[in-house]
Amino acid sequence: MSTLQQNFCLFFIILLPPLVSGDCTCDADDGERDKHQALEYKLAAIASILIAGAIGVCIPILGKTIPALRPEKGVFFIIKAFAAGVILSTGFIHVLPDAFESLTSPCLGEKPWRTFPFAGFVAMTSAILTLMVDAFATSYYRSSGFNSGAQGGVEDAEKAGDMHVHAHAHATHAHGPASFVDDSTSLDLLRHRVVSQVLELGIVVHSVIIGISLGASQSPKIIRPLVAALTFHQFFEGMGLGGCISQAKFKVRTTSIMVLFFSLTTPIGIAIGTGISNVYNENSPTALIVEGILNAASAGILIYMALVDLLAVDFMNPRMQANLRLLIGANVSLLVGAGCMSLLAKWA
Questions:
Q1: pLDDT digits (tens, 9 = 90+) for 210-245
Q2: What is the longest distance spanned by two Cα atoms in the chain?
């Protein structure tokens, strides 16, 4: 073989991987970049997403003033099932596939990212950790609250003495069921508070990533469809979170902080992405790894919360089990919510 043929073979071998990978590139996409028009779309995205998210999260909270939208009404179960379907679809259809795409990108090389399903592993670990936090937090507050109540009851009984045995027994008999109801109500309230806080954590994590990704893009062609998709996305997610906050019955200050935190997260992410757009490369190994891990962790939280703390609790509720029409309506609402958010995957 001549030297020319050897050089040609060597050149072909070097050039083969890029040819096989097709259009895949680890460089920033410079095609169709228009910073001025992109900035206009980003400003529109900040305004629309902020308004939509605020409206979505406030509807269930302010709905307590509307009799039909109160948590004890059947309409609330249907709305909450729709929102739970949106959150479940967000985890499975939007966030988790993005995590797999980031952590299996050719830009990361062959090992170890492309030889082990890190996205699924991180999502599974995140779901397990969410279960642990959920269980331990509920157990801690339950035991601390119940112990103090039990100790108070014992002390009262000892102070009563033998002089009031019959009266004390009568009072215990009369107020025992009420005390049990109060304890159950307190447990439900505590449960809703833990659920709402953990759910907001999962939503906020992926909202920041979405915002940074949109803000860092300089292509109006990419940003334009994302504005509409993310606006609906934040609205429906806000309804799910707002339903949990409404049932948690936080004080006005805490509720306001949670509403503002959810509403501002994605717009702040867009602002950060816009600020770093000149130096940010979404295809760099560091960006891919960080985004992939955070997306996977967020997906695990959202999937766990949707299935365990939202759907399972409501669908096994005795009131829904006893009302066939409400049960069917909630199932249809769940499918519609999951379907609508799945269709947005085409644009988001």
A1: 888 888 888 888 788 888 888 888 888 888 888 888
A2: 115
